Amino acid sequence: MIYIASDHGGYLTKLKVISLFEKHQIEFKDLGTNSTDSVDYPDFAKILAENVLQDKHSVGILICRTGIGMSIAANRYKGIRAALCRSKHDAVLARQHNNANVLVIKAGGCCCKRKAMIQAFLNTPFEGGRHAKRVQKLDEI
Q1: Which residues pair with 84 in a beta bridge?
Q2: Distance between CA 41 and CA 70 in Å, rounded?
Q3: What is the rounded distance in angstroms from the CA atom of residue 19 to the CA atom of residue 68?
Q4: Confidence of residue 100 (pLDDT cuts 50, 70, 90)
Q5: 32-46: average pLDDT
Q6: What pLDDT, in 10s, does the model give residues 50-76?
Q7: Could you tell me the pTM of the whole model?
Q8: Which residues are CB-contacts of 40 (< 8 A; sequence separation ≥ 6)?
Q9: What are phi and psi of 102, to 5 degrees?
Q10: Which top CATH class is 2-140?
Q11: Are 80 and 52 in contact (CB under 8 A)?
Q12: CB atoms within 10 A of CB 132
């Protein structure tokens, strides 16, 4: 399952991501927000983090204006490895080396670039090996 959430600043971008998922018949669950009315991003990071932690085979996507607030908030939850990615390369490495389970993206930007980041995040496996002990250390903090 892919969980997706945003604050008001990321709402319009979230709609574009959802449209992409629907077009490609990708299963997802929208956890809000549902408008551009002002909300507090930590509330939506919490909802998404709790869902990803309960559903061990899931991933999440968080969106806010810069991505910074959402990534800070999500990484407060033990077991969440949220990666703020700005490129496809970032998304690949986040999965390969860090076993990131939440992709954080900024609102706006190029649709093609965003699509490539999301596809890379969803399709790149964790390499394990030398990275596994590092990820384990992160989860022990």
Answers
A1: 104
A2: 6
A3: 24
A4: very high
A5: 98
A6: 999 999 999 999 999 999 999 999 999
A7: 0.97
A8: 7
A9: -135, 125
A10: alpha beta
A11: yes
A12: 12
Residue in 38, 95, 100 with CA at minimum distance from that of residue 71: 100
Give the number of residues written for the chain: 141
End-to-end CA distance of the chain: 26
Domain ranges of the chain: 2-140
Environment class of 21 (CB within 10 Å of its CB; exposed 0-12, middle 13-18, buried 19+) = middle
Report pLDDT for 98. 97
What residues form DSSP beta bridges with 53? none
DSSP-assigned letter for residue 125: P
Rounded CA-CA distance 19/134 in Å is: 35
Phi, psi (5° rounding) for residue 72?
-65, -50
CA–CA separation, 7 and 44 (whole Å) = 7
Pairwise CA distance, residues 7 & 35, whole Å: 9
> Beta-carbon neighbour count of residue 113 at 10 Å?
13
Pairing, β 59-64 against β 28-30: unpaired
- The catalytic residue positions are 97
Helix, strand or coil, per DSSP, at residue 6 = strand
59-64 vs 2-6, strand pairing mode = parallel
